[in-house]
Amino acid sequence: MKLRILIIVVLLPGLLPAQSLSLDACYELARSNYPLLRQQSINEQITALQLEKLDLQKLPQISWNAQATYQSESIEVPLNLPNGERLAQPKLNGQTTLEANYNIYDGGRIDAAKTMEQARLNVSQQSLEVELDKLKKQVNQLYFGIILSRAQDSILLQTRADLEVRLDQLQAGEREGVVLPSEVNKLKVELLRLESQRDNLAAQVNRLASTLGGLIGRAIEPSVALELPANPGIPSPVAVGRPELELFQQQKQEAVSQLSMIEAQRKPQLGAFVRAGVGYANPFNFFDTNLSPFAMAGIQFHWNILDWGKKDKDRQLVQLRTEMIDTQKATFLHNLDLLDGQYIADENKLQQLIEQSEAIRLLQEELLQQTAAQLEHGVATANDYLIQSNAITQTRLNLKLYQLQLLQLKIDYLTDKGLL
To answer: Of all helices (H) and strands (E), which one includes residue 354?
Structure first.
């Protein structure tokens, strides 16, 4: 009863932390704190600007042009005018024009380009999701590292409390002259060794907490309470919910979106134009050699009737790109399927180690109680007790390690499958 009370008193301060975090909360905090997340809004702004640029192409395009030339010779009519002058174009010419072009029908090129821009945005955003999903494995390693270190420290605390009780008994025997001082010193040395182990574990917890705090963007005290995740059930069969699968789908849609542009480029284009300006001489009137205004309006038609098989080649390229994406997806799923066998083997191994360690722990606890009674009556030495004490401590550490490793194995497996 004294031993239990002492353990509770020692552990009580650690049961009242100032913070509390769950694994899911760490996932969300790590995601929101990751700098790459800000690229999502940047991608959206870029796409919005690209779409606005494409919409502007539907508006009339207005341009101002100017030109001046001097030629060594010019056209001259071999006839004399009534005033005796000969009719000829001046060698120095200049003109300035204001021109407006309006695309009446573009064959769907602008709409196809907008579809491609939206497909590129979807691929970029899903690529970010793939990168953000990788944060979960980092969180798992740090989160469970802290939990394991604390579990090991609690076991060492339990061992220390037991040794302190035995130390009090030996010191009482030393005062009565029935126990040698060397036996007392052996327990003191062991207590110092335990404190050294606990100091190493405390330093490890500090390092892991600092790294996890930097990852989630929140300062974490070493005493923060981390909620132990519930033992998850593994569904059968195990589905795959990884963001890479959606990325493969978006990549295929991006490739297919090029087909609409390929079709649009084979369609005719129709446009209208208006051109007005001032020229010297008048470019539309051979007989007007003075500075004169001029204007022209009309429609333009363009149709590339023969492309020598370019359209078919482009379609084949799109087909090859989609096949390549399908191959990458199949390879990705194949590698994930390999995890099933590895998981089953690791789970069976840990389950066996847990059962063995539990059986060993029960036997060692009986031996430790027997050795403690012998030590109290002077039949056993401190060395005998320390050997049993160290053995059961190591067994408890191993048991806790295997239990947490099994839990982390399941969490990591579900993370790899995209189910967390």
So the answer is: helix 310-376
Q: Which amino acid is at 196?
A: S
Residues near 315 by Cβ (< 8 Å), separated by ≥ 6?
259, 262
What does the alpha-carbon distance between residue 229 and residue 6 come to, in Å, rounded to a whole number?
Answer: 28
**Residue 104 DSSP code:** E
Can you read off the two tokens belonging to residue 228? 């132990």
Q: What is the CA radius of gyration of the chain?
A: 42
Q: Is 1 among the domain residues?
A: no
Q: Where are the alpha helices (DSSP H) in 134-221?
A: 135-175, 181-216
83 in any annotated domain? no
Dihedral of the alpha carbons of 239, 242, 247, 248, in degrees to the nearest 10: -40
Residue 36 domain-assigned (yes or no): yes
Q: Is the pLDDT of residue 81 over 80?
A: no
Residues 6+ apart with CB under 8 A from 73: 91
The residue range of the domain holding 388 is: 19-60+109-266+312-416
> For position 158, which CATH number holds?
1.20.1600.10
Burial 129-144 (b: 16+ CB within 10 A, else e): beebbebbeebbebbb
For the stretch 204-211, contacts whose Cβ atoms lie closer than 8 Å and that sit 24 or more positions apart, written own/partner, are 204/145, 204/149, 205/146, 205/149, 205/150, 205/153, 208/142, 208/145, 208/146, 208/149, 209/146, 211/142
Task: Provide CB contacts within 8 A for 317, sequence distance 6+.
Answer: none
Q: What's the confidence (pLDDT) of residue 284?
A: 85
d(CA 193, CA 386): 12
Neighbouring C-alpha atoms within 13 Å toward the C-beta of 227: 11
Q: Of 98-102, 357-361, 369-373, where does mean pLDDT reach its minimum?
A: 369-373
Q: Do the domain assignments include residue 103?
A: no
How far is it, in rounded angstroms, from Cα 294 to Cα 278?
6
Averaged pLDDT, 244-255: 95
Cα 331 to Cα 342: distance, rounded to the nearest angstrom? 17
Contact between 89 and 70 under an 8 Å Cβ cutoff? The reply is no
Q: Cα(33)–Cα(27) distance, rounded to whole angstroms?
A: 10
Q: How many domains does the chain have?
A: 1
Identify the three-state secondary structure at position 96.
strand
Determine if the peptide bond prior to 35 is cis (ω within 30°): no
Strand partners, 226: 21
- Encode pLDDT of 323-340 as tens digits: 999 999 999 999 999 999
